[in-house]
Write a structure and sequence with these properties.
CATH class of the largest domain: Alpha Beta
Shape: flat
Mean pLDDT: 78
Strand content: 5-15%
CATH topology of the largest domain: Rossmann fold
Helix content: 55-70%
Number of helices: 11
Structural class: alpha/beta
Strand order of the largest sheet: 3-2-4-5-6
Distance between the termini: 42 Å
Order of helices and strands: EEHEHEHEHEHHEHHHHH
Radius of gyration: 25 Å
Largest sheet: 5 strands, parallel
Length: about 375
Amino acid sequence: MTVTNIPITGTPPEEPGGIRSCFVIGPHGDAFADPGTPERMVYEQALQVYENIAQAACLELGITPMRADELPSTGEIADQICRQVKESDLVIADLSGLNPNVIWELALRQGTGKPTIQLSECGTLPFYLAKVRTIRFSRSPHGLIKAREELRRTLEAGVRDGFDVLTPARILHGVVEVPAPVSAENEEESGLLDDFAQIESEAAAMVEDMAEVRSSIEAIGETTEAFTPDVERVAREELPMSARLAVILRYATAISGPADDLDASATRFIERMRATDSSIRNVLAYVKSMPHDARPEDTEGFLNTLIDLEESAEEGIAGLLELASAADSLKGLSRQLSKPLSKISSAVGRMVTATACISEWATIARSLLADLERTDPNI
């Protein structure tokens, strides 16, 4: 659509290419907190998003990014942040964790009508934020690169064509929307049934990925079981440390392959989940809003697919958690052993986070199925 009559103070630069400064808002944590504490982890995760996604994409296009902790002037930090939120050519908001300060700053920014881009990890966003296109990301190396590229493309399009004015600014400043004409491109956009089919296909692929995860777990377990007698023997016979290390090194070599396979399978699973999260939530919201007799025939099958996916994921997670516990207890034995065990622990952590997201889908799906069963006893 096109937008006319925008009487907004501090409107975007008249020339799309005028985007020069970018203020990045997001959780900050505490850089000086003890390692491993929640405050330090928030800081490190936020810095990871800033450096690998927002900063990297901006610099590629000649846009200067900045966070609150990089502001050069002295004075009241809240005043400085508010000025940057209001005056910067562009604001990128990292909504991970839904930090209250970030939400407040984002609301302030949206009221100006100036360009804003949202980033977020997987999870449910509040209603009004969910209505705005959000670049989702995972914290794997591939996930960060993918998000950076998506942000770069979004920035390029905005710099070239201008940015949309969001609802708060339209309401506050009386913006008039002019519907865009229907184009051939719009006519080719997928419908609800197309989305159902695509999601079901991705869900089936995720089940296959989870089967590969379980296969890797079994391979690691079998390898560990095979080496247990040797480990117990060298410990019992009080052999030199060099003999014990030799056994550990052979074990590290043996599990490196399955650990790599586990990491790859987990990454594929998580990337599929991230890629379909927004579509699945949109379809679920659409189904919920529709009268029962107007819902597509495939609705029940779609909802059951999400429930089956959760059950498959939970089966894999049970084995992963047991494996992670064993891996953590062995990490300190050898530097060579630490590498494959760290991959295992990383895969477990990422899979647990992904499964929490899938559980949200399944919870909504069960609720919708129960609603269908109450109205249609034949289901």
